[in-house]
Structure formats: structure tokens, C-alpha cells
Design brief:
Distance between the termini: 20 Å
Number of strands: 12
Low-confidence stretches: none
Mean pLDDT: 93
Radius of gyration: 20 Å
Number of helices: 6
Strand content: 25-35%
Length: 280
């Protein structure tokens, strides 16, 4: 048994019994797919989820997280007044209160920010012969995401809450979005041997409709110093040329380099998120 769903008349949660590493806990479970009619109902369900996880040997429970950080995780801790964007986590306003009432505390914080493309991309990075920046040619999406998967597994391996998944599981997540992709928003950094050393995955914010004005910088990773700066510079340049007006820096950890770079580019934070955890 890898998961179990708990349902009542006023909500439901799913527990994953094989979660990622968190601090020094021997075994971590996660709880996700949370739907509560109220904070009180959620607290009761989360207490039941904690008891279930403990009965299966877990020493800690984190959530909302659908098993790992590759899938949906985090709740909205400060909603702000901007509408939701494509592929953004969703949660009810009472969800955080439910987690807190069930003994959870914030263990990691994140934010999304936006910036007008009229103020980007900023100064051009210094020229380099260490790597080149290329756009996706639009062919063989599985080969594209296989490269992204391989680099992601290396680049993210030391991140908090990291858990390895298989290539098949990774491709299953991304194949549904292939029809939404724009070649000029998918960028690679390759070294002199044509080895991938960085990537940036951007996508139009189709939550605005078929002709969105904002574009999402969804994910980027780099194994080569300076590649991230060049990738983001080219992304802003391409997005601006495509007619987008706003760049959304999506779901960044409060402490990471992306967050620092977002601040340097004059981006304004419009939403905050939290991952919750408790010992059992």
C-alpha cells in the first residue's frame, strides 16, 4: 500500500506513506489532495491522516504534498489580489488554519512575483564561450523532457524534500502540456561538447485565456555558473519580442538565487505559499 484516501461528509485527504527526506526523520509521509469544508473539518481529517501515517511507521507528516515535490505541493498562505496563473497550486483560505490546528507548522516558504517586461531583461550578461544558449526546435518532445529530467535529477538532488522519480513518471506529468508549449520559451544552455548544463522552461499564462498577456518563468536549473543569468536574459528578450507584457516568476523558495534575481529585476511579490510539517 503506497497511498490511502480518507473521506468524510465534509472533506477528504490522501496520505502517501513513502515521502521525501525531511531533516533527520526516519520515515516521512505526506498528505495531499486536501478538500475541507472548514478549518475544523480539515483539522479532524489531518489528525486522522497523522494517526494513519504513524500506524504505518512514519515519524513525520508534511503537506500539502502529493507524494513528492515533482507533483502538486504547498498551500497558499497569503493570497493577495491577483488571479491564479497556469499550473499554480490551489487551496482554500481555511486550509492553513486546518493544518495549524492539527499541529502542523510552516517548514518552508515560497512566493510568486511579477514584473513588467518593459523593465526587463536588464543589462546583457557578459559574453562567454563556456556555453551557448539555444531554443527548442519544436521536435521530439519526449527527447526534450528526457534531457530536462536528467539535468533536474542532478541539479535538484540536494534540494530540501527531494525525492527521485522515474523518467516514465516525469514524462507522464509533462506530456499533457506539450500542446501549450512555445519553442522560444524553452531554452537550453549547452557546453562546448554539446552537453546540457542548464535549461529554462517557460509557458504562456493560459489561465488568462487563449491570448495571454503574461508569461510564466516556471522552472530553470543550471549546473554551470552564469548559465542561469543568460537563460533568464534570453527568456525575457524572447517573451518581450513575442508580445507578452508581464513576466511571472513562479513558486520560488524564499532563500534561493531565483528569489534574489527576481528582486534585482524589480519584480513585485503577489502571492505567498507554505509547506507544513509535524512530527508524529
Amino acid at each position: 500500500m503506497t497511498t490511502q484516501t480518507l473521506k468524510t461528509d465534509d472533506g477528504q485527504v490522501t496520505v502517501w506513506f513513502d515521502g521525501p527526506v525531511w531533516d533527520n526523520h526516519a520515515k516521512v509521509a505526506t498528505v495531499g489532495k486536501c478538500k475541507f469544508t472548514s478549518a475544523e473539518a480539515g483539522a479532524r481529517l489531518l489528525a486522522d491522516a497523522a494517526a494513519l501515517a504513524k500506524s504505518q511507521g512514519a515519524t513525520a507528516l508534511i503537506g500539502p504534498m502529493e507524494g513528492d515535490t515533482w507533483h502538486a505541493y504547498r498551500l497558499i498562505s497569503d493570497r493577495g489580489d491577483q488571479p491564479s496563473f497556469l499550473m499554480e497550486p490551489s487551496s482554500a483560505d481555511h486550509d492553513q488554519d486546518a493544518f495549524k490546528a492539527a499541529g502542523f507548522k510552516i517548514i518552508s516558504s515560497y512566493f510568486s512575483a511579477s514584473a513588467p517586461l518593459s523593465e526587463l531583461p536588464g543589462p546583457k550578461p557578459k559574453d562567454t564561450d563556456v556555453f551557448t544558449i539555444e531554443t527548442w526546435d519544436g521536435s521530439d518532445a519526449d527527447a526534450l523532457f528526457t534531457q530536462v529530467y536528467q539535468l533536474s535529477c542532478t541539479a535538484f538532488a540536494d534540494n530540501p524534500f527531494y525525492k527521485h522519480i522515474t523518467l516514465d513518471d516525469f514524462l507522464a506529468m509533462y506530456r499533457p502540456v506539450v500542446p501549450l508549449l512555445k519553442q522560444d520559451l524553452i531554452l537550453f544552455a549547452c557546453d562546448s561538447t554539446d552537453t546540457l548544463v542548464g535549461f529554462l522552461f517557460g509557458i504562456p499564462n493560459y489561465a488568462e485565456g487563449p491570448a495571454p498577456k503574461s508569461v510564466i518563468l516556471k522552472t530553470y536549473a543550471s549546473l554551470q555558473k552564469g548559465a542561469g543569468h543568460w537563460l533568464s536574459y534570453q527568456f525575457y528578450t524572447n517573451a518581450k519580442a513575442m508580445g507578452f507584457e508581464v513576466a511571472i516568476h513562479a513558486l520560488m523558495h524564499d532563500d534561493n538565487l531565483s528569489a534574489i534575481r527576481s528582486g534585482l529585476n524589480g519584480a513585485d511579490v503577489f502571492r505567498r505559499y507554505a509547506l507544513m510539517g509535524r512530527t508524529l
